[in-house]
Amino acid sequence: MNILNYTDEHQAFRKRLREFISTYVVPQAKHWEKDHFIPRDMWRKMGEEGFLCTNVAREYGGMGGDFIYSSIVCEEMAASMQTGLAPTLHSDVVVPYITEYGSDAQKKKYLPGCVSGEIVTAIAMTEPDAGSDLTSMRTTAVEEDGYVTISGSKTFISSGIHSDLAVVAARNPDIADPYMGMSIYLLEAGTPGFEKGKKLDKMGWNSQDTAELFFNNCRIPIENRLGDKGMGFLMLMGKLQQERLCCAMGAVYGAEMCVNGLMDYCKKTSDASDKPLSKFQAIQFALVEMATEVKIGRTFLDKLIADHMEGLDVKVETSMAKFWTTDMANRVLGKSLEIMGEFGSYEANPLVQGWRDMRVTSIFAGTNEIMKYIVSKLMRL
Ligand SMILES: Cc1cc2nc3c(=O)[nH]c(=O)nc-3n(C[C@H](O)[C@H](O)[C@H](O)COP(=O)(O)OP(=O)(O)OC[C@H]3O[C@@H](n4cnc5c(N)ncnc54)[C@H](O)[C@@H]3O)c2cc1C
Fold first, then answer.
1. Shortest-distance Cα residue to atom 51 of ligand 1
2. Which of 72, 190, 213, 295 could form a disulfide with 154 if both were Cys (CB 3.0 to 4.6 A apart)?
3. Alpha-carbon gap, residue 381 to 372, rounded angstroms
């Protein structure tokens, strides 16, 4: 029995998306990896076809879909091995800040563009000296006379270069409490003083741009604050359940694809005596172990997606899932390359890119150590 209930509409959506990916994404993905960039137009194409922000309500141009649509987009993108577009980051991590905390005016102004792909979003929390501990952030937001002046910088911001709208966390210096003195602002590209720094040269996610952002006394109207002043930290915490779930989705879908690819490889590849690799017991056991881990991951994940869709508080479980599934995916990809022998070090082998792309999943969106720290706190250990 399936834990998730896929309707005919979900299946039709998946079929359309798969066709879209095989037509527009797969043939180009290798070039994007080499260029370390994807054309901006791809976002608009995704939007035109209704593959962005599937949860956004119809009144703002979305399809008002449930979270299964989000999981389908993540799964199909993982299957294509394309990390540059990162629709999940835009649709299911950043834009939900606007759908949940935005005013009517903010929703009307930004959501239609987020759905159509005219607006690409980024979330800017991390700073050179504030990663895991967000309360040590130095970027300030001074609110005065109906305006906010933002000063400081952020680093490692995904889609930082492409982004038209950054959701920026900053400290309000007039509030001493680090937890209650942080607010979130919507900062448009082109605002005087808002500069995009260099694209960071990182390992993996080659076509995904990751950048520094600089704010030199950026003056924006107070209406660009999301929610109430000082509620930023709580708002960030409130959105982490879905962010961690998204990380777990990427990890499980990536690991599944890897194991399927590896099984296929082991059946088709023989040793010198013409015996397929899949007939060696050591390899069989390794494949069985990996397939079991992936199944455990999928079952846990689907249950969490179902719970999340019901609105349950599964912060503990999604934090567990984030660290366990990303560690598991890294284990599976590492072992797969080992089993493939020299082909496991060959650039043309798609699992090599998969291994490189998976590496960072234990670091971003809160490191796996931080996940365990959070779970230990929530368990009152
Ligand atoms: C590819 C990529 C994309 C990213 N995209 C974004 C983005 O879009 N937006 C954004 O805001 N950020 C983004 N980040 C930043 C990411 O969220 C941070 O890298 C992450 O939160 C960790 O922060 P840090 O790198 O400063 O490590 P640090 O916080 O300096 O941690 C260093 C090490 O110490 C450990 N550690 C720290 N504190 C504790 C503790 N209390 N207990 C146990 N161990 C601890 C960590 O687990 C880690 O191993 C991205 C990062 C990468 C690599």
1. 364
2. 213
3. 11
Domain interval for residue 301: 234-378
Q: Which of the residues 243, 256, 293, 317 is marked catalytic?
A: 243
Residue in 137, 142, 173 with CA at minimum distance from that of residue 155: 137
- Does residue 353 fall inside a structural domain? yes
Task: Name the domain boundary from 230, 253, 285.
Answer: 230
pLDDT digits (tens, 9 = 90+) for 263-277: 999 999 998 899 999
The pLDDT of residue 225 is 98
Across the chain, mean pLDDT equals 96
**Residues within a 6 A CB radius of ligand 1:** 122-126, 131-132, 156-158, 202, 205, 210, 360, 363-367, 369-370, 373
In one letter, which amino acid is 168?
A: V
Rounded mean pLDDT, 85-109: 96
Is 317 among the residues known to form the active site?
no
Amino acid 35: pLDDT = 87
Same domain, 368 and 238: yes
Burial class from Cβ neighbours inside 10 Å (0-12, 13-18, 19+) for residue 274 reads exposed
- 44 and 131 together in one domain: no
Point out the domain boundary residue: 177, 196, 230.
Answer: 230
Which residue's entry shows tokens 């924006």?
Answer: 220
- Residue 133 Cα to ligand 1 midpoint, Å, equals 9
Tell me, yes or no, whether 294 lies in a domain: yes
Mean pLDDT of 2-31: 95
Q: What is the CA radius of gyration of the chain?
A: 21
Residue nearest to atom 9 of ligand 1 (CA): 157
Domain with 112 in it: what CATH number? 1.10.540.10
1 within domain boundaries: no
At 29-42, the pLDDT tens digits run: 889 988 888 899 99
Total number of domains constituting the chain: 3
The owner of tokens 């969490």 is 304
Percent of the chain with pLDDT over 90: 93
The Cβ of residue 34 has, within 10 Å, a number of other Cβ atoms equal to: 10
Name the residue at shortest CA distance from atom 29 of ligand 1. Answer: 132
Atom number, ligand 1, closest to the C-alpha of residue 365: 17
Please check the confidence at residue 120 and state whether its pLDDT lies above 90.
yes
- List the alpha helices (DSSP H) in the chain: 8-20, 26-35, 41-48, 67-79, 87-88, 95-101, 104-116, 232-268, 281-309, 315-339, 350-359, 368-378
Whether 181 is covered by a domain: the verdict is yes
